[in-house]
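Minutes, project check-in

Agenda point 3 was the complex the collaborators sent over. CS summarized: two entities, 884 residues total, and the question is how they sit relative to each other. Sequences were read into the notes so everyone works from the same version.
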Amino acid sequence: MSAQGAGKQAGGGFGLLSLLSRLRPLLNLFTSLAVTFIGLLAITFFIGRVMPIDPVISVVGERAPREVYEAAYKAMGLDKPLIVQFALYIRDVLHGDLGKSLLTSHPVLEDIKRVVPATFELATVATILGVITGVPAGVIAAVKAGRWPDHLIRIMGLIGYSVPVFWLGLMGLLLFYGKLGWVSGPGRLDIFYDGVVPQVTGMILIDSLLAGDMTIFRNAISHIILPAVMLGYYSLAYISRMTRSFMLEQLGQEYITTARVKGMSERRVIWRHALGNVMVPLITVIALSYAALLEGSVLTETVFAWPGLGFYITTALVSADMAAVLGGTVVVGMVFVGLNLFSDFLYRIVDPRAK
Amino acid sequence: MKHFAILASASIAALITAGAAQAGTPADTLVIADKIDDLITLDPAQSFEFSGAEYNLNVYDKLIAFDPKNLGPLVPGLAVKWSLADDGVTYTFKMRKGVKFHSGNPLTARDAEFSLRRAIKLKKTPSFILTQFGFTPENVDEKIKATDDETLVIVTDQPYAPSFVYNCLTATIGSIVDSKLVMEHAKDGDFGNEWLKTHDAGTGAFKLRIWKPNELYALDRAGDYFRGKVAMKHVFVRHIDESSSQRLLLEKGDVDIARKLTPDDIAAIASNPDLKVENDMKGRIMYFSLNQKVKPLNNPKVIQAMKYLVDYDGMTKSFLRGQYIVHQAFEPLTYLGELKDNPFKLDVAKARSLLAEAGYPNGFPVKIYVRNAQDRLEIAQSLQNTFAKAGIKAELVVGTGKQTLTVYRARKHEIYMGAWGPDYPDPNTNADTFASNPDNRDEAKLTGKLAWRNAWDIPQLTKMTKAAVIEKDTAKRARMYVDIQKEVQKRGPFVIMFQKIIQSAMRKNVNGFVTGGAISNAHYWTVTK
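CS then shared the predicted structure for the full assembly.
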């Protein structure tokens, strides 16, 4: 979007005018970001406030004496008009203060620093697994369209789509942890390893490597592998279906026929030429599936006792812990925007036309 | 294509075999799987949740305590001796010497004075447990005083049953905090509340190492403990939402104790020779009540009939198995003044004749308000079924907890099915709500009292409850509560059905894990492995 504008402007003008025109796309970007975020916050805030849940009860309990209830009601600013509450919240956010969570008594920022790396780590490993299996599976399905490998991959994909993640997770735990003992159980680490390596990124795989502690690294791997495979299976299902349809479209194109006629090896035709051309839409698909994993793996987090962002936001939402919900929303919003920008950036690398 | 396939399978294989699962917890470490997502604050002056009470019991001490090994009489805590003066209002506590807080600060009577005053001045939800003795933020500096480093004097506004005062001091809000440490972190007159919500300032057997909300808390042994030898060096309490996940962890030996298993999971592990299950009673009572503003629910014969239309045994033997036992009085078993009689059982013929005497031989339609929680819905459906046998056509009105509670508190229900848990370990907590209603007018809005919510006008019982709370002779006081309960059992619009039991599943090698019955909570310091 902004890339084309920048390209047009780059050729003409110089001095201040040129600088301004170079900055405009950046300015546009920031304006649209600001509008997106305020809109996002406003919608979340007002939906949260019309929900029939009393946030004061979450804090003081249903048996609180009336004066305790009223004191808490005031302290939480609920006596002010909604619009004022929202304005005050935005003011605090601009000052870098996301408020305190009612449910954890911790600053929301601190909570988020704790839960986001857990989700990020899981979603990243899952997406890597999903991509390294899903893309080849999609390509094979396209090349062998209508034959048994295609059917097999389709069935696997369908199972991935339709089996509840909750059930699949429990069955996975029962088999690979309970019966076979190949992997570790729920949680990010065996509990007595908790807090042993200093927290740098919050992602245990990386932190343990930084600390050079291979025991903890291996332990973390044995904990993350099962939930990551489960989530990865879901992105496999999605990525392979999309890859298949992109590839089918490419394989019918003239340049593929030309390449074949020129005597190019089939492997090169498929993996270099055809796949190379579906990379751009595929990156969008992968980015979207990654983003979905970042905010939407609540059930997996529950089964695997994985203290991540999805679980945090859901718990906060049902207790009307608005500071926590809004804080989480900001993060999810940033992830979506960030991934969009990132896939824009990747387009330019894989597709010279986008420059 | 081959490259991809090889790369993919190689990385998965490498990842899977990278870390073989390690079984068993270290001998000096206790790992508990539980649900602790209700833990919202660690400050004992504010904490009023189940998980909070258990955490505080292990990190803080009170002046007096229940002995985990013999949950009857009160035993010394941070006070070694206590007495009541002849005036009936002046309590004197002699503090234990040589106790240190986790910070290293020595404990004195000044800390006890500070802690109780602080709890009253902070005015958080559980503060009523102390303010019911006439303390206010304004007068408490006069009423609660350390006369020297070893002596704490508490003066109540009128004579109360001493057992009532002592029992209330064993509640979480009676925890003694490190005054020096807490005040170092005080901000804007909050008595260190913001800080103490996430930190520890206690003398208990364990000190807090880390609390990650919705994830875990980890405690370390604090050093010598005045109540006895502490075997465990570390305790981890981990939040595991799913019963099946808890069970797997227990079976594999990755946790020592699983606290929240469903009856199905408990049944499934019964035959496992490495595990055992211990039952304990909790204070929660399951009941339904009849709004006395609604006809014919206020007819004494109808009230009687309802009590014979509940399949008490059928429910506890089927879907409530392992979760509830039949109990028909409002004080939980093990409380002072417990009443063990269960006079009612399912008797449709008797109910029918009572209804006929009341003038309703063919029954009547009625609405049951119930929260959408599984056990309650199942109970309500069973009631619907047994009511129908006597011609009573019950319609279930299902809502969220808040919706049904709103109707109930506004006295707009017909039948309300719900649960009640005691607020502090003294019989007054339940007597005051089931058997006391000083003002039955709508405007009185005594929403905290169940008798008021059901519009049950009971001047005589209210008087009896008031008398019991000031009776000095504990044995006599216990008898008074028995009488009150018998009266409620006979006439009251409350059909009390069940009391909660909890089942803790643990590894065979775990001993001494006491969950504290209805009056207390789990102690970790008594555990050995």
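Noted in discussion: The CA atoms of residues 120 and 440 of chain B lie 29 Å apart.
Follow-up: revisit at the next meeting once the mutant set is ready.
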